[in-house]
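ESCALATION

Customer reports they have been waiting on this structure for their group meeting. Please prioritize. Original submission:
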Amino acid sequence: MEQRRTRRFQLQLPVSITRAGAERVAFPGVTKNISSCGVLFTTGQEPDLGGPIEYIITLTHDGPQPVNLRCMGKVMRAEATQTNGDAKSKAYQIAATLERYEFVREREIPVGR
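Update from on-call: job pushed to the front of the queue and completed.
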């Protein structure tokens, strides 16, 4: 039986990867689960394994302004998966650490998201 240090919460929330390694990028994804130490999400682009990553999780769209969490971490695992049973359409399941985070307002999020 697998034992984890922290509890994981099964949450499907929108995520936007804004930096992979030293490069600014903008590609969307969806979280699968989140813990205080990291996140597991799916996206259509493969990041650099072991490299730094910055991603923004939208916690809620309720109210006058979305609640966003900008996270910095490192890519620990990336696995290719198929989407919708289509062999040509690939997605990646990515496990990343959550080393630092901050709440950000919509206007503070980089353009291209």
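Sent to customer with the following note: The longest strand covers residues 67-83.
Escalation resolved.
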